[in-house]
Each structure stands twice: as structure tokens, then as C-alpha cells.
Prior knowledge:
alpha+beta, four-stranded antiparallel β-sheet, three-stranded antiparallel β-sheet, 14 strands, globular
Amino acid sequence: MALLAAARLSEPTMLILAAFIAIAGTVDVTAFGPGAPLVQSRRNLQRGVTSPTALRNKVDLSEDAPRDTDGLQEWAFNCGVQNAEGVQLTSHDGWYDIYPMTSSDVPAGTCVMYVPSNMFLTSYGAKEEFGQCEAAEKLIGNLAGADQFPLFYLFLKVLVEYEQGQDSPWYPWLNALPRYFNNGASMTPSCYDCLPPLAAKLCMEERVKLINCRQALKTVEFVSDEVKNDEDLLKWVYNVVETRSLEVGGERIIIPMADMLNHASSGHEVEISYDEEGSCLVYATNDVPAGSPLRTSYGDYYLTNPSATFAKYGFIDETCPSTFCKMMDIIPSTELRDIGLSFSRMLFYKTGEVSEEVYDVLLHQILSDNRPAQEEFYRACVNGDAATKSAYHQQYMGQIVGKLKDHVDKFLTNLDDLEKKAATKDLETHPRLPLIVGHNNFVRETFMNVKQQIDPIAAQYSYSSY
């Protein structure tokens, strides 16, 4: 999917953005153009968002509606977006997935795209424009916490711009967005039943965030009841915001054109930066040959957790070298977290290798009946005492591998059961099932590779016990 979600930012960049937020948060963009000034204004929000004028020429949200990329690129150019020579939007699947590529060789360090800051849609700008939505904040705060306030304000901003139709300065961008999404918020409860526990949990969390936004919207007086009750529209707006926004400094930002960058866990070609005015700069991280897509990383969290990428963005990241080991039944503790209990550290690799943290956590559990030994092993882990740690692993390796093999075998059996369950579902009612099965098979491949590695080791320890 053509998406942008996160960028790794240096401390100087964060300071620049902090200054940018302080400045940009006081204005609302109502006109664009090369060098166009930011115009401070407040919309007339006394009537509902929907109006006779706004009802005309809205973006067609039909799932098969064409994405107007020509209009987007013309609009972007007129607004001051600059691309390096040869950089253009393209597609490999009939313009469902649209992304930038280069038809020319790009040397490392080249700025391939510039997007002026006055084109950004921001949560802090939306809050300044609409005022503080106290009732909505209270509701979301009670349901999910203040961390989701920026998501709601940007959700509200995109909704208002959609309702303005062609009166919105962002109409050409809106008209080039995907209409169909495969992420967790778009799935049905029956879809969740066909996913393994972690993926199902993450997908359901996306749906809960959508429901929270819909509930909070009911408290916003300037939005009409017709809009509040249009579930398809609200789901589309939520998916646009959730899949195309950056999380920066506790706020949400969408950068038109840069939001077309696809994701790659390894081998991505570009990274996001910002200049002193807060405008977006997309730089090549290495030499990029002609004909290559321009992809970025959506953040460290997604580099080792393809199920999270699947839940939030709705695609299978086949470039991801590893996946969380799916051990969901471990009760977390401070000690376990210290030695590696996390989605990003307890990993199974495509090669069949298992991260050290998986062995450490399993051994810590095995030692639960011998607290002095457990404490000694814990100290060895956190203090870097490799000799003591290795001695414990050697002593208990048979039990560790036995627990690991048991987990892998049970998970693979669970995937077989999920595949059978998916086969009973109606594809017309649940059109995302093929992608769900694809996700499960992607995970299965990694687990099978791990199984090939650990089965011979487990057999050796089983044989030696006789």
C-alpha cells in the first residue's frame, strides 16, 4: 500500500519540528501555491459540515473509483512540491497501489522530493482551526487515553475537508487516495476469527480506535447527523488518517505526496527529513538505480513485527526478515522485560534462527521453581555475564528446546485449524480472507524454518535422556 507512517528523527530534527509546530499550530491553510503565504482563518462552522455547496463534487468513495494521480501531481507541482528528475508516481497493479519510483539513477544523499510545510494536514492545526473539542476529548480520554487525541483531531480535519468537496484545497489529494483498505479496521469479526492471537488482537485494536473516533464525533456539534451516521465514510476517513499519518512529537501529520511512499523493512531507498522551515525533504539513503521504487521505513516497530504492519496498513511485508515468536501466554514482569520480553526482541527469523531473547525468557520461566538460580541467571543477563549465562543455558538446553518445539508445533497446528476455518467463509461477505490466509502462510513459512532447525536438536536431547 502507498503509505507513510513514521520516520526516525534526529534530535535536531525534533527541535526543528517543535519550532514548526509552535508556528504552524496558529494558522490554517486556505490557499496553496508556490510560495503562497499561510492564511489565518476560521471556517464558518455554525452550520453542519454538510451543506448544499459541499454536497457537490465530492470524492467518489466507490471501491473501484479511479485514483486521479494526474490531478494530484499537477496540484502538487502548483503548490510547490519538487521532485528530482525522473521521480514520478506509478503502479504495478492497475493503479490500486500507487507509489513513487525513479526512471533515472539517483546518487545517495540526493533530495528526491520536497513538500512545503503549508501543505501538511496536522492534528495541532485542526485543533487550532476547530477549537478544543472538550466533550470528544473527555470521551476518548475515558475510552483510550489522551494519546489518541491527535488521531481524532486529524480524523476530524480530513472529514471536514472531504465534506467541502472541490471547495477544499486538498481535494486533488483526496481524489487520489485509495478507496479500499485491507487493514484491521476494515475487517469483520469473522476475519479476526481466522487470524492467530497476536494478529487478531492488533486488528481488533484498530477497529476499537475507529469506533472511538466515531463515538467522539457524535459530540461535535458542527458535524451533521447525516455525516455522523455514515459509517462507510467514517471508516474511510479513519483509514486515510491511520495509514497515511506520521506521529511526530505526540502529534499527527499527513504530508501529501510523501504519503505515497511504500514501506520496506530492509533495503529501503529513502528517508524523511525536514528543513529549518519544517518542510519535508525525502533523501536517498543509498545509490538508487533507475527503475527502482522509492520506499521508506515506517518505523522500528514494524521492522520486526509484520503482523503489526498487516493490522495497521493492510499488507504483508515480505521484506521483513523476522517475526515475533507469538508467545502470547507469558505473564509479563519487570525481570522478563529486562531480559527481552517484547515484540521487537523475541524473534523468529526467516532463516530459521531464533533470537537469544527467546531462549533467555524460556529459561527464566523454567527456573521459576528455583528462585536463587533464577535470580543469578537474571543478574547474568542484565550485567552481561556471558559465562554464567552460557552455563545455565547448557545445563537446561534440553528443557528450553523442548518448550520451544512444543510452542512451534502447537502454533503450526493452530494455523492449520485457522486455514480450515477460513475455507468455510464466504469470500463475497469477507473479501479480505485471501490476504488473511496469505498473512498466516507468511508466518507459517518462518515457523516451518524454525522447526527444521530445532527438531534435530530436540531429538538429540530426547535420545540422550534414555
